[in-house]
Amino acid sequence: RDGVVTVWDAGDSYANRELETLVRQAVNHMMGGKFKRAAEAVTEALSLRIANDDARDLQILASLILVTCHSAQGDAAIAEQVGIKLQDLMSRLIEDPSGANLETARFVANYWTSRRSWPEAAGAHRMIADLAPEQSYSWLQAAPVIALTGDADAYAEHCRGMLAQFRESDSIDEIERLLKVYLLLADVVPVEKLPIERLEEHLAGGESA
């Protein structure tokens, strides 16, 4: 445990596959309530001393698991130490999401959302939308989080991005989600640009939203 918070120092780089295997084992242990074994697997994974940006996403996942496990075991001091470095890793991921993994981005978004840290959560949700722009549900999930930051310009930008992505969609679900995002803060963006007629066509054809 003493070395847990030092493993982010640059060192010899190991194959990502080895780290990934250990993280997956830790996830399985954690899901089964075996927090001690999960923490041991993650500590071993992080002791591989992956170089600075190598396997960044797996480092974040491993750290999230480690914080959860130590918190569940009542090791508050260790959980806090790892949590500080974890937050730094996640902040740097949001600032530079190049090569980010969608699963990791969702973990990060859930982490900040659960702590009601809206600016950080909004950044993570925007990253998810950027990584998977074709998934309308990700845009929908991001909307209320961005709204909670109080940044009207950021919300308007989010709406415009979603409109550009789904304006011509033939999916009633995607059009419905687009309308919901716009109408959440209807005074922020003009609704006359919305493809309401496409929804009306779907409804006229017998489909329900």
- Average pLDDT, rounded to a whole number, is 78
> Any low-confidence stretches, pLDDT <50, length ≥5?
1-15
Helix/sheet category = mainly alpha
| Strand percentage | under 5%
Basic shape: elongated
Number of helical segments with 4 or more residues:
10
Q: For the terminal residues, how far apart are their CA atoms?
A: 52 Å
Percent of residues in helical segments?
A: 55-70%
The biggest sheet, with number of strands, parallel, antiparallel or mixed sense and barrel status, is: none
What is the H/E string? Answer: HHHHHHHHHH
Instruction: Supply Rg.
Output: 20 Å
The number of strands is 0
Please characterize this protein's 3D structure.
The structure is a single chain. With 209 residues, this protein is mainly alpha-helical. It has helices spanning 16-31, 35-46, 56-72, 76-95, 102-114, 118-131, 136-148, 152-166, 172-184, 196-204. Helix 9 (172-184) crosses helix 10. The longest helix is centred in the middle third of the chain and has 20 residues, at 76-95. The radius of gyration is 20 Å and the shape is elongated. Residues 1-15 have low confidence and may be disordered.
SSE map:
Blueprint: H1 16-31, H2 35-46, H3 56-72, H4 76-95, H5 102-114, H6 118-131, H7 136-148, H8 152-166, H9 172-184, H10 196-204
Short description:
This protein has 209 residues and is mainly α.
Keywords:
209 residues, 10 helices, 68% helix, disordered N terminus
